[in-house]
Amino acid sequence: MLSSPAEARTVRHLIDSESHADYVYMYPPRQAYRPFSPEVLQRLPQLVRHSLDHSDILNLYVHVPFCRQICSFCNLYTVRDGRADLDRYVDLVLREARWYAALTDRKQVASLYLGGGTPSILAPSQLERLVSELLALFSVAPGEVPAETALEVDPASVDVAKLRKICDAGVNRINLGYQSFIPTEVATLGRVRAERSGTRLLEEALSVGFANVCVDLIYGLEHQTDESWRTSVREVARIGPETICAYPLTLRPHTGYGRRGYDHVNGAMLRARYAMAHEILTDSGYRQETHVRWVRDGGGYRQKANHWALQNILGFGAGARSYLWDLDFRNGYSVRHRQAVLESYGRQMEAGRLPADSGFLMTDDERRRKMVALNIQSLDRTRFREMFGTDPFEEFPDELAALTGAGVVASDADRIWVPNRWLGDRDLFSQLFFSADVRRKLEEFTYDE
Ligand SMILES: C[S@@+](CC[C@H](N)C(=O)[O-])C[C@H]1O[C@@H](n2cnc3c(N)ncnc32)[C@H](O)[C@@H]1O
Ligand code: SF4
């Protein structure tokens, strides 16, 4: 990681020396979260209320951590459990949501995202209940589903009949976590994959009537080759969902990969695979939206875009994260004691206590850093000035001078951006804007969670 602005001068060197940085999709990264003190926990309702009062717009997230298997690369908060009591889980989530709803006026709900884990294991009736009750609690227009009402779908957990019911329940975007279209690669992820769940399922999904079908792929997987990666990307592009996300692999200890020693990926290889995906997708008519997302005809990922625009995202469920104006927090996390997090969530909710346990208190300085770190690929200077009363070049003169000096960031009066040539390295540049406090916390962090 780049540890000071001065080191930005070596940005080109880092790129040349095959360095790579993990995907920066939140700021601060969760490794900078710390357990909340009793005083902060006591102030939590006040902090949440103050954050929600800051805006008329709200985004809702529900974490459904249950999965049929724990995939080798995955370090998300998930529990291996195909027999979970999902009705009880939905009850707990709604109880948590009611608690937060009592703190705030109704809002314009810009997005509702059900993620995981595998939220597609919910029955359509459970989904419908979640969507309608959450909107009844938070929305100024509870009869209207948000422009993005999204569900993450494990392709092995659905067939076209279930997808139709999911669509009828009000879901207008599905996120299909394929990761690869090569059966042998999928098998090495430890994934159960039904025979129908490849190409045919994706074609069927596109016929159901969702406004936005998204396919997730990962590059850098064990046993993946340049050629097999191209095959996966070409296959998805040929079928043509509205959104394609191609993520560089993030490696973490205590995952299947970590345990079997697959713990290093080469930066040059990742850069090459990023470039391959970009070429195939743009040649197929996709427009690049960020360094991990290509879209066509109404594609996109609103909740992520809204998060990066510093809108409030309020999350419910075991392991859920909330990103609010005054603080980020989460309802537990562990990859070593997965069941304990779920049990603790249930106990807290049944005792009438909030399950939030750790996070990060934002300051004005951290919000400015968040805005630049998450949006360096295309930062609206006018919007930044409206929000903070100052220009990014005044706030971060050394960092931006170093990046523009190295030729990897450009600017005009309205915008700062990473030119296409360097977009694949956006995460290296984002890290330059991390505060000293966040850097210290990242350095102190140990993966014994
Ligand atoms: C929140 S996860 C969704 C998980 C979902 N259950 C699934 O697998 O379909 C969203 C996407 O992040 C990506 N992802 C998850 N873990 C990753 C990792 N360790 N490295 C790179 N991408 C990852 C995957 O493409 C995944 O589909
Ligand atoms: S990748 Fe998806 S399905 Fe696999 S363990 Fe992670 S959340 Fe579950």
TrEMBL record:
The keyword Secreted does not apply. Keywords: Iron, Iron-sulfur, Metal-binding, Oxidoreductase, S-adenosyl-L-methionine. It comes from the Bacteria. This is Heme chaperone HemW. Residues 52-287 form the Radical SAM core domain. The keyword Magnesium does not apply. It comes from Catenuloplanes nepalensis. GO terms for molecular function: coproporphyrinogen dehydrogenase activity. Gene3D superfamilies: Aldolase class I (3.20.20.70). Pfam families: Radical_SAM (PF04055). InterPro entries: Aldolase_TIM (IPR013785), Coproporphyrinogen-III_oxidase (IPR034505), Elp3/MiaA/NifB-like_rSAM (IPR006638), rSAM (IPR007197), rSAM_sf (IPR058240).
